[in-house]
Amino acid sequence: MKGPWMVIFGWRNDVEFSNLGCGRVNPFADDRIVPVSVFSEHEVDQLHEVRRRLEAAADDVHKRGDVWYDPWLPAYGCALQKTKVNAAVVKLEVLFVDGWERTLHFLLTGECVHSAVPKAYHVLHCADLDSALEENFNKKFDSKLWKAQQGKGSKRSAAINDLGHQKTPQFIAAVVRRAVAAVTSAKEENEDNGFERDKRFSPHGGTTDVGQHTGGRPRDTCWPLVHAAISRNLCCGPGLFRKTMAMFHLGLLKKTIYQTQGAFRRGIDVKSGCDSSLVELLDGGYDVSGLQDECAALRANVDELIGQLNRQSTSQYHLPDSTALQQLNALSSEVLIESPKRGKGLNGDEDAEERRRRALGNLNGCWFIDGAMCSLRDLLGWEKTTGTSNANKCVLVLRTVETFMFTRSHELVDDDQVADNDEGQFVEQMQSLVTAYQNAAATWRQLPRDKSVLDVEQRSRELLVLWIAFCLVHKSCVVDVPLCAEYNIALDWKDLKVAVLSERAAISALQNVAEYSRGWNDRTKGLQLFHMTNQGPTFGFARRFGLDSSAMVAAYNRTWVMKLKSIRRSGFPQMRLE
Hints:
Mean pLDDT: 77
Helix content: 40-55%
Number of helices: 16
Shape: extended
Distance between the termini: 96 Å
Number of domains: 2
Structural class: alpha+beta
Largest sheet: 4 strands, antiparallel
Strand content: 5-15%
Strand order of the largest sheet: 1-2-3-4
Number of strands: 6
Radius of gyration: 39 Å
């Protein structure tokens, strides 16, 4: 039974490694950024863990958390899964395939076979067994299953709560429950009399009989059962399972191609040896006419095989015959297309630019700018010339600004990228852009439209744009105002997990914001600046910033002197100016 999954997890050709964890390890991980042919180190570790579970033997020493399968029962469409919950308890479950659907496939002989394939799997919880009784349980299970298999004819029936013998997963679950009851019972049970007519130990319904059906063939359950076990034990979501299956089928295809090429080369070598032997016999004066006829017959078989392959390839591409051409020629279009009439009031002297502007105005369109390539100044100029009177323009403004911000988010983690920020105007321009973006979002929400999940994702995108803008401004202010470098960013990167995003660029931008804020706070380890619930550090920052600024100190002194003079003129001559 080790062969199939040895091929799956032992085949390592064309498999690379990259540092990427799944969503269970990193909530911001997105496995779609890695090509299908690439497996990360975390994914390879998970595949090795699944391989260990599938190959684990019953007599191995198991520790807490281990999962193994013993026995595999493909004749019943299931396997007994055992889980070491702790040092004293082993959980017994029956993993079985389900969701059978009818299908047709053709054998090499051309015979059409009606069969069924499973599309799902389920798990039946049977019991929690004391680990000290596991060996006795295995013996009881084997003996009770063997005894049930000896039943013939009417003894296979499960009527009146008998065990019977049916090729169903529920039958195996009933055997498991009886074996557990036998090893945990206070008295010895030589027979099953204590279990007969007891509903707790009788087989239940609801599962498919996978035994012999019409045609005398049992259902194919071996590979679907292994398929279900692999899918159940992978923790990285469906992506890793699909990648593994794709690589497995690709490996089988390569193996088949290599075997075919090898067989063809061996056949050519045998043919060359046969030709040499015939030439030697012919030189010796022997009559080789009979062998020549056999070689000619073999050559005819080879030519026939090649001809069949060529006919299969060319059957998909052929020209229609004369009858089909006549039928096509006789067809007439049911839609009458007439040339539009020219309007009498049109101005024939207008140039192409005027016609283009007029057409653009008639279509109620707007200019387009590439948010990933434009500068901040160009984007602000484009936004001012683009109104948001309808839904299409609102969405265009939102998506263009989001594309610009998502692209600029790479500057947070990549020091090699130098932004084209205008000296002294970056903060003001970024504030203007964010304000325009929020106004467009507010206008878009007021437009009539159907409520959908897009509202939730749009709010997440707005939050992401705000945090990207804040981090970009923070990175700029740290250079201009070194005092900012002593404070943390008022953002816990773990709180960003509430964002609902589906676009890869948005997820990448979210990761950049999380990496920047997390890295800055880990390096600085200071108080949080501009925190909404704790404004003490913000006031302290303002005080220190004001005392360090000569311009602000001079302005403060001028204001204080003017205030004192005003008080003195109002009737308090005893106050003295210092």
